[in-house]
Amino acid sequence: MNYSVGEIRKYASDALITIAEDSPAAAAIKAIRTAGRKYQTYKNASYPNVAALDAGMGRGAGWLTGLGQFRAIVGVHVATLATMFDIDVEEDLASIFPLADLE
């Protein structure tokens, strides 16, 4: 997982080099990169309110909380980019988007 998050950070950094600082995409891409950095920095953080499950992985469940935070932030910002630029998104990636408000 750490490798994948690192690759996402790298793609975000590369994208920021190629777009203008005032691009409407810049804020979303920076947020994705920051979320990756936060996950990689705090992936072993203790989340005292999360049960100490390790599912045979040899670590507590706290990393799942960090991963969930990362996915949620990325989902919001990729959905924003897709809406802004009318980008078709594959179903697997779209599965992390926030649910549409149907009311």
Question: Can you give me a brief rundown of this structure?
Answer:
With 103 residues, the protein is mainly α. The chain has helices at 2-18, 26-42, 62-85, 91-94. The protein is built from four helices and no strands.
Report on this model:
The protein is mainly alpha-helical and 103 residues long. The protein has one domain (2-94). Helix content is 60%, strand content 0%. It is built from 4 helices and no strands. α1 runs antiparallel to α2 (26-42) and α2 (26-42) packs antiparallel against α3 (62-85). The model has no long low-confidence stretch (mean pLDDT 86).
Comma- or semicolon-separated keywords:
single chain; 103 residues; mainly alpha; globular
Distance between the termini: 36 Å
Number of helices: 4
Overall number of structural domains? 1
| Main beta sheet strand tally, sense and closure | none
Helix content range of the residues, please? 55-70%
Q: Categorize the overall geometry.
A: globular
The helix-and-strand class reads mainly alpha
* Uncertain ranges: none
